[in-house]
């Protein structure tokens, strides 16, 4: 880029019509920041620092406070706080860091007539792994412009070896010698590396002027990327990352109603859903201020003071409104400003970027608002058809397209049916303490039953020798009418769904007239229950209810005969009430369970309500079935694992106030649900793991399940990789591959990706398929960032198209012979490290637990050990792997035998270590140079975790 015009910077204008300098300069007067491009200026205006500056300036002006602007921190400071601000750690660290940067700029300059080639540093570029293993050399020429030079080359050191004795893949060859005018002196920098990644160092070249007896230094940065040129070319950012400026939606004043699909009328409702619109005072409390302010405001203005049976409904209604408010705001991300439509028959097809990824999630029967550009009216389009990348909308007859090129503004509307169903449940009069707030006293009359009778009558022979599963079934059979909920605590791979299905069959054997409702948060989990029952129950005994929005293509063929369909299109519905009451078992999702109350079924019809995977559902979702269908005698059985992922909550406010805590987790934290004291009475913990190799299971077992789990999987499966060459330790099927990459972002997406890790994953997948006969379906790849998911899928498309790549949430409840985890984050900033921003979703114990317990025979983790070690859980896990010699690549830099401080601030320690390294280099350089201070700041923006938080697919 041509240099910036000085006249423009100094005066704000340039009168030279032929000026060759860059004029696309924008100045933010409020922040005193100069941006060299319009894009950079827009990014600054949408950034956090700019917003804070305006807020503080407005506050100071409103309160008559004189301020002074701190150029270093880029914030206005009240005059009476100026001295205090200059002593703050943030300000002092910025001073040190910027002085350090200035010092580096100074020592990288040629001086005293001595010139070292590669003025911008030695950049090897991108080299393939084979080239790095063979070695690559760069020769620097040292010359002098002084004919009678008295300077000699004394020494060349690498910064990495000077600071704490680190090893370096760079090696310098040189001969100490006098620098002679007219003749170049050479030094060679060699690079050799056996692993991919990004490598950096500095060559500190020490000279001495023998006449003056003075030493001075010239530094050259060293950089290299060991990776795939092809992958970098294909995956590099398509455009520089510019934070998306969120503009408020203009109000919608006039909407022309659309034409709903016939499926919307497939069910005749006797009980109508409440509208349950968000109250104005809650909207006001959620609109302004920080999350902390919003939480306090909601507590004061909306939440009941006590959380008990009488206030239960009002408590959760408030949290549901907070979540709905955030969901509606998050949908704005998917608005389209210049969409085109394709007209075919009665439908107008709209292409929706990200539709296949459920970003946004769109179901049949949802509505989309479309506004022709230049008009004020909006047209409501109902979704009739959903394809891979587009939806078919049906508008009113008054909707007209002038041409195929006509542009439209598009807004996606939140489907409020699921949240209205939860409000309906919260409004019911069911307030039984034994179900909502059970205490130890509720279990006083319940004894732990014997398993002998169950063992003799068991249907599934795999359960016959499993004491915990037998106890769970015996306890379910013995539950007295009106008992508190019973919990089957099922850690990973312990067969909780198998246990629940056997329990249902035993209840039917014990009493053929019993009626059972089985629910799960997702269709996939509900299908699993129904499929296991379909082989033993007839279509007249088992009914799998699907919402009318469900597509037939998504239904397992095995369950078709167990559904009820109406109309030419085969829309899912419910049969007549006389037939509904004859089904022995009905299976649905938690939210769809509202249909039974809605069509007029009597509460108490079901003697038992089962909720599988209950840890993944919000409490109001579970309560749809419980509060609308239970009576004083109904037994409730929950199964799941509250140590794994809970429900997906988008609102920070709702999360902080408890909506992320599932009903199962809340109960398991109450007196009366102790795993040992009340075993078989209120809870049974399953302990035999039928999935993973014992070494894969050991760490999560000790950290989440008190060491109770027993590895019980078939040896021929879990020992598949034992003694294979892919393992650093042939007896330890966990491999940590340390790699330093770069976490990139592109365009307006704040989601991260890491090309170096993508290349490494591709290499592992190809090796597994080529050398070990592993199929695509036996490999799963987990990564916390959606951008990384897309990059990995794109890279594997030509070599392993059927490998599942997804988020932790997408893998909960699943297993693969091989699991590869890409952790992505690899930032190397020393000063501004922050665990929340740096690790993102990685620093979450439950997410960690799910990720590392999906593997059966081999677990491969790829990431930057320095970054991962900021989180105590990850640090402990890496120590476990290192002590078992399971690490390759970049070595960990800490003592892996040292006990991890669970509450320790390792980010703070890392910052201090980085500051120590910086200070050591500063002292070493300042012995030969006087540093000049400079001022500057980098602006960052954080859009929160919701960009990578998946949308729940709720019927």
Structural class: alpha/beta
- The CATH class assignment of the largest domain is Alpha Beta
**Beta-strand content estimate:** 15-25%
| Largest sheet entry | 8 strands, mixed
* Structural shape: globular
What is the helix content? 25-40%
By CATH, the superfamily of the largest domain comes out as: P-loop containing nucleotide triphosphate hydrolases
Keywords: Hydrolase
Protein name: P-loop containing nucleoside triphosphate hydrolase protein
Task: Give a description of the structure.
It contains 32 helices and 40 strands. The two termini are 53 Å apart. The chain folds into 4 domains: 6-103, no CATH class; 107-235, Immunoglobulin-like (Sandwich), CATH 2.60.40.10; 447-690, Rossmann fold (3-Layer(aba) Sandwich), CATH 3.40.50.300; 702-900, P-loop containing nucleotide triphosphate hydrolases (Rossmann fold). With 955 residues, it is of the alpha/beta class. Helix 26 links the parallel strand 36 (779-782) and strand 37 (804-806). The strands form 10 sheets. Strands 14, 15, 16, 17, 18, 19, 20 and 21 form an 8-stranded mixed sheet that branches. The radius of gyration is 32 Å and the shape is globular. Helix 5 crosses helix 32 (906-926). Keywords: Hydrolase. It comes from Thelephora ganbajun. This is P-loop containing nucleoside triphosphate hydrolase protein.
């Amino acid at each position: 880029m041509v240099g910036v015009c000085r006249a423009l910077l100094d005066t704000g204008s340039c009168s030279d019509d032929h000026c060759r300098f860059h004029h696309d300069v924008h100045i933010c007067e409020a922040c005193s920041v100069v941006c060299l491009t319009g894009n950079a200026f827009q990014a600054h205006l949408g950034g956090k620092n700019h917003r804070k500056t305006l807020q503080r300036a407005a506050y100071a002006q409103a309160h008559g406070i004189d301020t002074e602007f701190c150029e270093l921190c880029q914030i206005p400071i009240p005059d009476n706080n100026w001295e205090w601000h200059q002593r703050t750690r943030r300000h002092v660290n910025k001073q040190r860091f910027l002085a350090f940067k200035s010092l580096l700029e100074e020592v990288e300059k040629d001086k005293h007539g001595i010139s070292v080639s590669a003025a911008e540093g030695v950049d090897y570029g991108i080299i393939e792994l084979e080239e790095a293993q063979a070695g690559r050399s760069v020769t620097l020429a040292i010359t002098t412009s002084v004919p009678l030079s008295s300077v000699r080359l004394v020494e060349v050191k690498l910064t990495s070896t000077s600071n704490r004795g680190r090893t370096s893949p760079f090696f310098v060859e040189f001969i100490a010698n006098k620098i002679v005018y007219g003749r170049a002196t050479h030094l060679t920098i060699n690079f050799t590396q056996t692993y991919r990644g990004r490598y950096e160092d500095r060559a500190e070249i020490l000279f001495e002027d023998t006449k003056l007896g003075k030493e001075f230094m010239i530094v050259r940065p060293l950089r290299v990327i060991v990776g795939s040129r092809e992958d970098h070319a294909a995956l590099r950012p398509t455009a520089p990352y510019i934070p998306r400026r969120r503009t408020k939606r203009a109000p919608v004043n006039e909407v022309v109603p659309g034409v709903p699909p016939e499926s919307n009328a497939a069910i005749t409702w006797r009980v109508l859903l409440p509208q349950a619109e968000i109250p104005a005072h809650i909207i006001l409390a959620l609109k302004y201020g920080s999350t902390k302010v919003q939480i306090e405001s909601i507590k004061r203005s909306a939440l009941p003071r006590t959380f008990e049976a009488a206030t239960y409904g009002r408590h959760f209604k408030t949290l549901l409104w907070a979540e709905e408010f955030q969901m509606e705001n998050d949908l704005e991300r998917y608005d389209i400003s210049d969409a085109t439509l394709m007209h075919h028959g009665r439908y107008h097809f709209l292409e929706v970027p990200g539709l296949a990824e459920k970003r946004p999630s769109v179901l049949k029967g949802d509505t989309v608002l479309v506004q022709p550009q230049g008009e004020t009216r909006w047209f409501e389009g109902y979704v009739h058809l959903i394809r891979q990348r587009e939806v078919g909308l049906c508008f009113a007859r008054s909707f007209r397209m002038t041409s195929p090129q006509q542009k439209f503004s598009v807004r996606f509307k939140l489907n409020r049916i699921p949240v209205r169903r939860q409000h309906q449940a919260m409004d019911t009069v069911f307030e039984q303490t034994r179900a909502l707030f059970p205490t130890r006293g509720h279990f006083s009359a319940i004894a732990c039953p014997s398993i002998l009778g169950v063992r003799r009558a068991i249907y599934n022979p795999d359960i016959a020798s499993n004491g915990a599963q037998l106890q769970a079934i015996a306890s379910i059979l013995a539950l007295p009418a009106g008992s508190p909920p019973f919990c089957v605590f099922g850690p990973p791979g312990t067969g909780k769904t198998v246990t629940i299905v056997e329990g249902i069959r035993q209840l039917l054997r014990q009493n053929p007239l019993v009626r059972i409702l089985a629910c799960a948060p997702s269709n996939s989990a509900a299908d699993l229950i129904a499929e296991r029952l379909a082989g033993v129950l007839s279509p007249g005994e088992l009914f799998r209810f699907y919402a009318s929005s469900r597509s037939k293509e998504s239904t397992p063929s095995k369950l078709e005969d167990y559904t009820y369909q109406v109309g030419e299109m085969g829309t899912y519905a419910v049969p007549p009430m006389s037939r509904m009451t004859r089904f022995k078992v009905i299976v649905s999702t938690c939210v769809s369970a509202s249909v039974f109350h809605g069509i007029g079924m009597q509460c108490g019809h079901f003697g038992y309500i089962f909720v599988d995977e209950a840890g993944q559902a919000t409490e109001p979702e579970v309560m749809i079935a419980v509060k609308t269908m239970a009576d004083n005698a109904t037994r409730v059985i929950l199964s799941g694992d509250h140590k794994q992922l809970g429900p997906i909550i988008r609102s920070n406010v709702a999360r902080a106030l408890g909506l992320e805590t599932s009903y199962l987790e809340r109960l398991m934290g109450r007196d009366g649900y102790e795993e040992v004291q009340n075993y078989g009475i209120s809870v049974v913990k399953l302990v035999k793991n039928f999935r993973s190799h014992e070494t894969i299971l050991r760490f999560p077992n000790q950290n989440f399940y008190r060491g109770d789990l027993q590895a019980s999987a078939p040896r021929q499966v879990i020992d598949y990789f034992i003694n294979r060459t892919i393992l650093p330790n042939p007896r330890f099927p966990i491999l940590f591959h340390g790699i330093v990459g770069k976490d990139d972002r592109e365009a307006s997406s704040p989601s991260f990706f890491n090309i170096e890790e993508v290349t490494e994953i591709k290499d592992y997948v190809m090796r597994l398929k080529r050398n070990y006969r592993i199929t695509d379906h036996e490999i799963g790849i987990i990564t916390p960032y959606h951008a990384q998911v897309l990059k990995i899928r794109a890279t594997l498309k030509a070599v392993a198209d059927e490998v599942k790549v997804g988020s932790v949430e997408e893998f909960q409840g699943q297993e693969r012979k091989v699991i590869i985890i890409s952790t992505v984050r690899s930032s190397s900033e020393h000063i501004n490290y922050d665990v929340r921003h740096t690790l993102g979703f990685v620093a979450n114990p439950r997410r960690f637990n799910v990720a590392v317990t999906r593997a059966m025979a081999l677990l491969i983790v790829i990431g930057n050990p320095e970054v991962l070690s900021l989180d105590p859980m990850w640090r402990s896990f890496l120590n476990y792997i290192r002590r078992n010699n399971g690490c390759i690549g970049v070595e960990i830099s800490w003592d892996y035998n040292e006990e991890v401080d669970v509450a320790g601030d390792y980010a703070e320690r890392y910052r201090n270590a980085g500051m120590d390294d910086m200070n050591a280099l500063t002292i070493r350089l300042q012995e030969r140079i006087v540093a000049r201070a400079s001022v500057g700041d980098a602006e960052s923006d954080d859009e929160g975790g919701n960009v990578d938080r998946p949308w729940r697919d709720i019927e």
